[in-house]
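User: Here's a structure from my thesis project, written as structure tokens. My advisor, Dr. K., wants to see whether a designed sequence matches the one we expressed. Can you design one independently, without my sequence as a hint?
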């Protein structure tokens, strides 16, 4: 049984936290060591302290473990999963986390790929200086891996990133623009996920998932993805055009 310290911060447990760390690990299909490792990395909220100072876990922890597994299946590194979970609202319930998991498979970007410097330059179609690599990293196109000359690459962003290397924009401006885009797209994604949930009903409202509703949610998400992406791109292009016209035109 687990005797780790914690607080009453288990997210959205239904019913109250009743699982020991051993029971949580068994239900989630992971080891106790994995649960504790995720806890130390901040991927899991702390357990609720029960009788005899025993740490107790609930549905919120199970749902978060399932979401971590889904994100790993999409090729996300542990560091990327940490950043993803940090962006989720702190008050998400177990059912909201389960909905996130149901939507991840249809909406996740192409998984990151490992690449050496030679492979990166081959795919970029040009030689890259250290400054170029720094700019690509600032745009979120790649991240330096543990060993020198190795990178984690987002294949979907590489072509655009390489094209932007020759645009005379300061790296600080790129970082600031990326921050703005992330904040607003995260807000839009959060609102859309709630719309999807309302459309098909909540598959988790009775505690146990309704397989038909889960399938309906995934189907709706997959069909809506290209439409939503195109709508966002079009709306952004129009808004940016209007803003630039207003900024650089007298009167």
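Assistant: Designed independently from the structure alone:
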């Amino acid at each position: 049984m687990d005797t780790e310290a914690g607080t009453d911060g288990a997210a959205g447990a239904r019913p109250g936290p009743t699982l020991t760390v051993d029971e949580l690990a068994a239900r989630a299909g992971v080891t106790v060591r994995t649960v504790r490792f995720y806890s130390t990395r901040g991927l899991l909220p702390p357990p609720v302290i029960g009788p005899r100072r025993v740490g107790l876990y609930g549905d919120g922890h199970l749902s978060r473990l399932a979401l971590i597994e889904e994100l790993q299946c999409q090729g996300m590194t542990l560091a990327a999963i940490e950043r993803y979970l940090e962006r989720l609202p702190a008050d998400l319930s177990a059912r909201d986390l389960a909905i996130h998991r149901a939507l991840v498979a249809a909406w996740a970007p192409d998984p990151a790929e490992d690449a050496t410097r030679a492979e990166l330059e081959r795919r970029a179609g040009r030689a890259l200086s250290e400054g170029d690599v720094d700019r690509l990293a600032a745009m979120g196109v790649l991240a330096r891996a543990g060993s020198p000359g190795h990178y984690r690459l987002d294949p979907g962003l590489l072509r655009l990133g390489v094209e932007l290397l020759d645009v005379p924009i300061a790296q600080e401006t790129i970082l600031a623009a990326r921050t703005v885009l992330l904040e607003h797209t995260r807000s839009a994604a959060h609102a859309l996920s709630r719309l999807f949930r309302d459309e098909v009903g909540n598959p988790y409202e009775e505690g146990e998932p309704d397989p038909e509703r889960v399938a309906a949610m995934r189907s709706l998400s997959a069909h809506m993805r290209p439409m939503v992406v195109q709508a966002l791109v079009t709306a952004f292009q129009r808004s940016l055009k209007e803003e630039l016209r207003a900024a650089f035109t007298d009167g």
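When you compare it with your expressed construct, this may help: Confidence is low (pLDDT under 50) at residues 1-14.
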